[in-house]
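Re: [help] complex structure
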Amino acid sequence: MSYIVEIEDVWKKFPMKRDRPGFKEFMVNLPRFVKRNSNSYFWAIKGVSFKVKTGECLGIIGKNGAGKSTLLSLILGTIYPTRGYVKVSQRITPLLELGAGFHPDLTGRENILINGVLLGLTRDEVMQRMSDIIAFSEISEFMDMPVRTYSSGMYLRLAFSVAIHIDPRLVLIDEVLAVGDAAFQKKSQDALTGLIKGVATAIFVSHNMDAIKKICDRTIWLADGEIKAEGEPKKVVEEYLRCSG
Amino acid sequence: MLKVDRELRRKWDLLWLLTKKEVTLKYKRTSLGILWSLLNPILVALVLFIAFGVFMKFEMENYAFFLLSALFPWNWFSASIILSSVTLIGNVNLIKRIRFPRHFLIIATVLAQFVNLLFSLPIIVGLAYFYGKGPGMNWFLAIPILIVLQFAATLGICLAISMVNAYFRDMEYIIGVIISMLFWMTPIIYPLDTVPKAYQIYLIFNPLTYLITAWRDIFMSNSINWSNMGISLGSSLVFFLLGVLVFHSLGKKLDEVI
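Output below.
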């Protein structure tokens, strides 16, 4: 069995985000700062290990601040683990925050191109899909206008269209199933479900327990950076709901 | 093999698009657009020419040509450095949410400024044709070498500065001061030999002196200054390697500070 994601004993710490004092405060409080040479860290992920099989859909649940998003970023590769290792063997589409690579002053078309290439396609491959992407977004009449003139709904539609069209082998989803109006929501959900049921492997973070139970093959419950339970979605979700009252 | 080709192709496309974005976005909402790339250095040169050519009356025929032959390469250097200090912190969205080679952002910044140099090159060619020894065969040998040398040095410095600025935001302001100091400490608006002997030593320790003089020699007198180019090769290599080292070693914790 081939694994698309392998995570082994991963730890990740962040420095405690305290605003650094300005020069004035620093001078006034000098004695205190010298005494408290604070090296405080926050461990967001504490020794997590799991593997994801090709074609599988893994759900991740847990309270706010449990480390779910950090875990996704580690898999995506935008942050590095402090300890342990993360191995990912395929092209990834992040559906984390849509439209991250969009620039407001570029037109829709220009943004599709640059975002598609950023997400892993070549220029020619994006050009081949251009008409599909535009058609899916249903906002073709605005394609040659700068994105800054778009409404937020239009912006998300375009971003979602790009993300769904790059043929990812691994999709990371962080609560974005609600894009646009009701009609487009249904369309985007269908497209995503099609993708997941098809070839792609998916890692799906959500607070929507019904969606987790419906889509996922396996679920991990994350609490304070550790895996609290893992297995059959129904059982894990029930346990999670019972614990969080 | 095919897969490697595709990945290479994609990287090339990415670099091309990022550079293009950098070039076009800069003047996107202006009326003159890309013409500013040409107009801006000319206007700056005009100011300097009036100050030093007209008011101060440097004893030299063709001060304008003298000035521009060094000013245009200098502009490539200084603009790249100043812009790259905010390249990483200005692209937080991309860096935090999409995985791609981050150094491409810096390369694109330096390349986009290089495009500005290309834009101003016709002026140099014209001046060389009328006042200098004309664009000759030496140009085709020396200019590509100089471009590579300056590119490597600039990129190295930009890599280091952009990364350091993410950790230590004061860098951006320090760089502004250093760049204007360097401008006066490099023989751009004055020839090296007009500097009193006692102070020349400071200019001799400035690696940019050699690079800028080599540019001027090829533009003004169609001669290749091999010794200066040799020195520049050494310093470019050092800057490039140092930059890559800093970028790589600090890059691992970038996500925690940005």
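The mean pLDDT of chain A is 85.
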